[in-house]
Amino acid sequence: MLDLKKDDMNKKLTIALAGNPNSGKTTIFNNLTGARQKVGNWPGVTVEKKEGKLKHKEYDLSIIDLPGTYSLTPFSIEEITARDFILNEKPDIVVTIIDASNLERSLFLAIQILELGRPALFVLNMADVAETKGIRINEKKLSELLGLPVVFTIGNKNKGINTLVEAAIEEVKQFDEGKKSRDIRYSNEIEACISKVETQIIQSAENIDGALRWNAIKILEDDKIVKDKFQNILSGESIKIFQTAEACRKRIYDLFEDDFEIVLTDDRYGVIAGIIKETITNLVRKRIDMSRNIDLVLTDRFFGIPVFVFFIWAMFQLTFSLGAYPMEWLDAGVGLLSNSLDKVMPPSMGKDLLLDGVIAGIGSIIIFLPNILILFFCIALFEDTGYMARAAFIMDRVMHTSGLHGKSFIPMLMGFGCSVPAIMATRTLENDKDRILTILMTPFMSCSARLPVYIVLAGSFFAEKAGTVIFMLYLTGIVIAILSGRFLRAILFKGEDAPFIMELPPYRMPMLKSLLIHMWERSKMFLKKMGGVILIGSIIIWVLSSFPRTISYSADYDGKINALKSDYSQRIAATDAQEAEELKRQLNLKIKNIDNTKEQERVSKSYIGKIGKALEVFFEPIGIGWQASVALVTGFVAKEVVVSTMGVLYGVGNDEGDALEKALKKSGMTALSALSMMIFVLLYIPCFATIVTIYKETSAKWAGFNLIYTTMVAWVMSFLVYKTGMVLGFG
Ligand code: GDP
Ligand code: MG
């Protein structure tokens, strides 16, 4: 048998678009119909009527753009036109365009349309606006609650339009198969009224067109148009219905002292509030509420500070414990590079420059890159979560000691990482005096470059107490910064501090991408510093420590080495393989010792050695020997260089392990002089890059002032500590 295709003729469907003005109805209408539209007027009124066509699969769709309304009450021509069309022309489906960013207002119309009992579809348009407002709508839940399909669209980007059409067709099919629209339930009194009127309508008339419940509600609302319709069709019979409704209205009025319409409107908003509560997460609101709760603890007068100290402690802990691993790998990598170049390159001055200058210099600093990255990551985390603003808030009272606000504490905190970005971060301070003062205080915050010095010195001389010593140094930095601020405020920046509001932004879940970007932007500065200033500095130090090339040594080191070699080679030849290995090892050790002694003498007679000796007058009173003095001077290039310079000067090459520790102890350095040196490193001249940044951000005057001021403070503090220690017998 041949199956005759009776479906060859396309199915026709009418889709009406309803919605508030400006919900994007016309935009969606245009998206759907393109140029195939006809503009006219609704019959009898001057309201514009737009109709358009659309072919979708086997469907010929006719789209009607209903007038925009906020409700379906009979108060305006638009409202009446829209609802008459839906009730009388019976479009196959009413698509309600909802402004998703304004769900409450839109739902007021939408649930009335649902109430008409016709197939309906909710379109959450302006999904983009809702998203930027932080409104998240659970469309599945909304769809479940209301028993109709819900789709998202972005009208002006033509997004979701196809889904809309598919969902509309599907919903029409469902109604063909017997689906009924879901009733919105109101409070008991209202429901009792509705049900009484419904019963009366059923008793009075079987042939009333349109939804029973909707008609009952409209009669209860005293809707003139619906009542007229009943009057026309039922004449006398309608009186009974009206009387029932009137009795209900009176009861409602007695109960609530308000008209039925108003009570129902309240109820509708109650229903809407319920829907919203279940389907919307207002991320902004939620964030604000949540933030308020978190702030009860984090910015509490008593809890705030310990929590803050804990976070800072955790930050350092993370920075150094986690950073230790990649640090080792990098260190090994640099060593490997240096060794392999050493093997392949023939001896030359260029090779010395490359290995002992460039690679030793850059290498000793690049190993701290992981620490710096982690530290900056933590700082970015504080910033992006909104905690940084709380830190500022907590420190506000402390900062007032210096006549500054908590906001100044943010750049200072960043100074733990690197003074350069920290000083640039003072740009957020509105007041110029505050800004300069903060810039002058920031270098006292112990930057990450100083840490290697503490690790070496505290590690060598304070053993298990090293951690405490380092923590105390950081604390000293903060105290000196704040006292300095107070001092400078009193002398140089007289005047009241301007009041200002410290904003507490809501806490946010940080985005990894943004954290990484922040971390990278700051670390980039560090890398630039390495490629520029540190590279040049390393070369200069190398030149100063490598020249003059010919030095008259106090002993014939090379002769000693040669004698050793020939002595050992005879002994090695005369013994078995195993013992030969042992002898070779001894030989190498001895040669290394001689080499080191030679190197030390060479450096002491080089230009840098001469500079160091000249500086002894300055450093002697604070217990620092000439090698350490030179290291401190080179530290002006970058604090990281201090350790590598000490490595060179104490004759241990690039080996920063316990070789340096032994050498330091042998050179006569004591715990007290090590402490003095650490304090000096903590406080003296920030590095070259910092001075340049201060210059760029303020003026040459302040850059110069900072240079002299910090060095003076450092010297005085070291002097006090050293002399006090001597008097107390710790020397
Ligand atoms: P109507 O009054 O409901 O017909 O609204 P229109 O279609 O005239 O749209 C009102 C405005 O909203 C227009 O400027 C549209 O470009 C814009 N619009 C429509 N849909 C969206 C949307 O999803 N997102 C955004 N951001 N704007 C939209
Ligand atoms: Mg329009």
Annotation keywords:
731 residues; alpha/beta; Rossmann fold; Helix Hairpins; 7-stranded mixed β-sheet; two-stranded antiparallel sheet; 31 helices; 9 strands; 66% helix; 7% strand; disordered N terminus; binds guanosine-5'-diphosphate; binds magnesium ion
Q: What form results from the Cα inertia axes?
A: elongated
- Compounds present? guanosine-5'-diphosphate, magnesium ion
The structure class reads: alpha/beta
Helix content: 55-70%
> Strand portion, in percent?
5-15%
Mean model confidence by pLDDT: 85
Q: Outline the low-pLDDT stretches.
A: 1-6
Question: Can you tell me about this structure?
Answer:
The chain is an alpha/beta fold. The protein has helices spanning 25-33, 77-89, 103-115, 127-132, 139-146, 161-176, 188-204, 212-220, 224-234, 236-256, 260-279, 283-298, 304-344, 349-366, 369-385, 387-400, 409-414, 419-425, 432-441, 451-462, 466-491, 512-546, 557-573, 577-605, 607-619, 626-634, 640-649, 658-666, 671-683, 688-697, 700-727; strands at residues 11-19, 37-41, 48-56, 59-65, 93-99, 120-125, 135-137, 150-152, 280-282. Among the domains are: 11-176, 3-Layer(aba) Sandwich (Rossmann fold), CATH 3.40.50.300; 188-282, Helix Hairpins (Orthogonal Bundle), CATH 1.10.287.1770; 514-727, no CATH class. Strand 2 (37-41) and strand 3 form a beta hairpin. It is elongated and about 135 Å long. The N and C termini lie far apart (115 Å). Bound molecules: guanosine-5'-diphosphate (GDP) and magnesium ion (MG). Residues 19, 21-27, 68, 125-126, 128-129, 154-156 line the site of guanosine-5'-diphosphate (GDP).
